[in-house]
C-alpha cells in the first residue's frame, strides 16, 4: 500500500503543471494562486500545529527555517511551472542530487563516494543537454524562469538537509510549515507591483481553493504518509515518477517538445536521481516534494 500511495502521489505532483497552466489560462496569476491555495491549507492545518505544540517546543527555529527554505522551494517551483517550459523546469529542478550532495557534505559531513560523484556528473550532464548542449551560450541562454527553477531545486535540497538533521522536530509540523512559508511568500509579493490581484469570478476562487485542499494537500499527505513507511532509498526511486509523469504528459499533450538531445538529458537526470536515491537509509525518511 505505501508503494502504491507514493506512486500515485508522485504522479500527482508530476501532473501539477496541468492545473497550473489551466488556471493561468483562466487569468489567474501565480502569486494569487499560491498565496490563496497554500494559505487555505495552512489555516486548515493550524489545529495540527496547536496539537503538536508540545513536540515543537524548542524547535520553532527549525520550523521557521523549513518555512523559509521549503516555502520558497514550493513557491518557486510552482511559479516556474506555471510560466515556463515544463520539461526544462522539471529537469532544472531535479538538480536536487547535486545540491543535496553539496549540502550533505558541508553541513552533515557526508562523504563523496563514487556513487555520489556519478550521480552529480549525470545530473549536470543531463541539464547541459536539456538546455541545448554547447548552444546554451547562444541559442538558449538561461532566463529568469530557469533561474527560478534552479533556485527551487537548491532550496528544496537544503530543506531536505534540514529535515534529515532535525529528527526531533515533528515531521508533520515541518511539512505544514512548508505550506505556511509558500503562502506567506506569495501573499507578501502580492503587495508589490510584480503581479496585480486579478478580478476573478467566484468560480475561479473556488478552483484556487480546490487546488490547495484537493491537489496540493492530497499529494503532500499521500507522500508524507508513504515515505514514513518505506526505506529512504526505495522512496527516493519511486518519487522519480514525478519527473517521468511531468515529461511524458507534457510531450504527449504538446506542451513541450522532446528532441533527441533533450531525451538524452532527461535520461541522464533520471539515472542520477535513481542512483542517488539507491543508497543505504541511514537518516530520517525523505521529505515531501511540493508544492514540490
What does this structure look like?
The chain is mainly alpha-helical and 292 residues long. It is built from 13 helices and no strands. Helix content is 72%, strand content 0%. The protein has one domain.
What is the topological layout?
Layout (H helix, E strand, L loop, with lengths): L1 H13 L2 H9 L4 H22 L8 H24 L2 H8 L2 H12 L6 H17 L13 H22 L5 H19 L12 H26 L4 H7 L2 H12 L7 H18 L15
Oligomer: single chain
Give the end-to-end Cα distance, rounded to a whole number of Å: 22 Å
Count of individual beta strands: 0
Quote the average pLDDT.
79
Summarize the structure.
With 292 residues, this protein is mostly helical. It contains 13 helices and no strands. The protein has one domain (2-277).
Record keyword descriptors for this entry.
disordered C terminus, 72% helix, single chain, 292 residues, mainly alpha
